[in-house]
Amino acid sequence: MQGSSRLVLAHFWAAFATFAVAIPLGAWQMLVRSPLHQWIAPELYYRAVTAHGTTFAYVFPTLIAMGFGYAVCAVSLGRPMRGLSLAWISFALVIVGAAMALATVAAGKANVLYTFYPPLLGSPYYYLGILVAVVGTWVWIGLMVWHVRRWKIDHPVLPIPLAMFATAVGALLWGWTSLGVGAEIAFLILPNAFGWTSTIDPGLARVLFSWTLHAIVYFWLIPAYIAFYVLLPQAADGRLYSDKMGRIAFLLLLIFSMPIGLHHLFVDPQIGAGFKFLHTVFTGMVVVPTLLTIFTICASLEIAGRLRGGRGPFGWIAALPWDRPFVLASGFSMVMLGLGGASGIINMSYVLNSTVHNTQWVTGHFHLIYGGAVVIMYFAIAYELWPRLTGRPLAAPKLVRLQLWTWSVGMLLVTLPWHLVGVMGQPRRMAYYDFSNPALASQGVWVTVSAIGGFVLVFSAALFIGVLLASHRGPTAAISPLKFSLAVNPPRRLPKSLNSFGIWAALVLALTLANYGYPLAQFAFLGKSAVPAFPVSQNDRR
Amino acid sequence: MTDVDQPRPRDPRFAIWIGVTAGLFVLALVVGFIWLPLAQRGADGLDLWSAICRAVGLPSGNARVSAPVAGQPASQVAWTTETRRRLAQGDASAGAAIAQACNNCHGVVGISADAIIPNLAGQSAAAIYKQLDDYKSGKRDPAVMGVYVSPLSDQNLLDLAAHYGLLPNPTGDTLSTQSSTSTVARRLIDVGAPLRGIAPCASCHGPAGVTPGAPGLRGQQRAYLELQMQLFKDGTRRNDISEQMRSVARQLTSEEIAMLAAHYSSIPDTGGR
Ligand SMILES: [Cu+2]
């Protein structure tokens, strides 16, 4: 991979190592609050949730996006990456930051959950660790953007390869959106954790966090979408239906996933209803790139299916090579994306939101989208890259299929019951539920089902790690280099709007400022809403 | 520079997309900040400017109808930093001297001999002070206690609170003889009854958390506890700030109250307040 194999491999292994720890934690959390287990000390529960959330929000997907970004950069631009030492520095920052944050959590000094929830206050090392990791990713953003620019200067009239174009969109998106959480930590939480300020404004902290909270999900999602566009069609022996549609979808994601974060604060009394409406409207717009993607990918798959001899309105589906991991994973991913998308539309509508807000429904929604639809594509990407990185074919294709099956089944077992009990009113973030209470008893069976699903996921995760490990030991073989799907009509020239970022980046900037400007600025002049912090899980309570 | 492969320098898509986005923004502004706030319920007669202020979230724009504050506060005591500072200035030995007048009823060591008279030993000083002040101001029915507190100064009350707060807690032999293992009571204490809006007693009365001024209940006299909960329930006692205790008691059945009183009176106060 143009000399960046070690770099990519390091990112993926680091990611999967954290994954291997955080998945069993998740299953354990589900077990201890199910009817299958006695109540445990809430402190332990929140410690585990913080570790699980921190890993899966800040560490695991970030490392995957970075590693995949490097792979795409090397392969799609067709020349070795420059600045490898910077890339390693960035990697080291992420690892050091993550280790610092997670060690603090493991020590029980920061049971604040990954969303921080000021005025809850944990040890400063937890926040500092996350900040260091985030700063590490900024180096990656710089590298990605710099490579695209350099390539464009050398190839002024050629279209930027779609995979790289999308990677750059992901990098820009992350750069802009990570500023929210970065500012929250740097300007609100850390000064308080170090004792320089005596109060903290939870409202302002929430708004800053929401700045990050929606688009971060799209940052996690983009590698999966890239895989849909540039790897799936070819894995199914087909072609990408439209390259331009892909670019439009990624640009729309860039523009509309930022100025919408207030949909996480629909019940927040400090935000005016008008802004909630404004953000709802723009949230509606992010459905568009997802629909475009589903359309384009289905069309691409149809092309593949028909090329393979499928007939009739549905025959092409059966004709697809479902035994190939990439195709199988994508199929599962689409199903979960569809279900999760539907529950997402419920979340984003102001009125329905108040019914599901803070219930287990929400947890079900984001596990389905992210843990299901996105993470299964991370697996598929790893399976696709591994032979290219190790020079050995993937071990045990049957086990690979079993792994993908168990992951999807497990994730559906986990999340569908959560949606259900959420509608029944079960609150989220609870260390225990009293299922002996007749009013809650009927939820017990569903919570049990989802706890069992959690262990199916643990099994699947173990299988995944096992297959990757085994694939390092197989016999070396000649492996065809990684190639990206051809479009039906590969673009030879593109209009500026589909081949550059500058103006779009400016539009994102303008739109975010328009949508967030007042909700942020109001804290400067409206009544003081800062309160003393509430230190949790520290022996030295201030 | 007439390279045919050169992309056209001006791409109309920019203008179109930015125009559409801006149009959407303006439309959302008009709907969200003018139309909806004017159309929603309770907006009759709202002028445009107030409607916009309301949608923006400006409190002044919202306060079209000023909500009258009805009635009197539940108590003259407020848990300000000033109150806490004064509490720390109570002198326990001065309090012990004044307490001579109280010993007949509340017991020499703060453990009363009569189940209807509360124990005071080891009670939180904040709770004692607040109750004494409430008797003095008439916020809590002063029928019995009024005559004893009315001649006392604020400093006297602080001293008394400090004195009783320092006396040792009720121990095993002073406790009610019927020990209770009521699971109903324990559940209410640790979990509450979420569906009836009852927060766990332990979250306000300890040990899980302590609301300012919430008295300790462990080892308290059984009949006293039961009566007080009943008084909160029927609204006769109304000196709890923000109806914290009334809103709990209203939801409790008389059986539950009896079980809670039996339970609390049977467990020793292990301190920790
Ligand atoms: Cu969101």
Summarize the structure.
The complex is a heterodimer of chains A (542) and B (273). Chain A has 542 residues and is mainly alpha-helical.
List the helices and strands and how they pair.
The complex is a heterodimer of chains A (542) and B (273).
Chain A: H1 5-32, H2 42-77, H3 84-106, E1 120-121, H4 124-154, H5 162-193, E2 199-200, H6 202-235, H7 243-256, H8 273-285, H9 287-307, H10 312-318, H11 325-348, H12 350-356, H13 360-390, H14 397-423, H15 438-471, H16 502-525, E3 531-532, E4 534-535
Parallel strand pairs in A: 1-4
Antiparallel strand pairs in A: 2-3
Chain B: H1 12-39, H2 48-56, H3 59-62, H4 81-87, H5 92-98, H6 103-106, H7 125-137, H8 146-149, H9 154-166, H10 183-190, H11 201-205, H12 222-234, H13 244-249, H14 254-266
Helix pairs in contact in B: 1-2, 5-9, 7-9, 10-14, 12-14
The structure holds copper (II) ion.
Describe the 3D structure.
With 542 residues, chain A is mostly helical. Chain A has a single domain (5-486, 505-541), classed as Cytochrome C Oxidase, Chain A. Chain A has helices at residues 5-32, 42-77, 84-106, 124-154, 162-193, 202-235, 243-256, 273-285, 287-307, 312-318, 325-348, 350-356, 360-390, 397-423, 438-471, 502-525; strands at residues 120-121, 199-200, 531-532, 534-535. Chain B is an all-alpha fold and 273 residues long. Among the domains of chain B are: 81-166, Cytochrome Bc1 Complex, Chain D, domain 2; 183-265, Orthogonal Bundle (Cytochrome Bc1 Complex, Chain D, domain 2). In chain B, 49% of the residues lie in helices and 0% in strands. In chain B, helix 5 packs across helix 9. The complex binds copper (II) ion (CU). Residues 213-214, 263-264 of chain A line the site of copper (II) ion (CU).
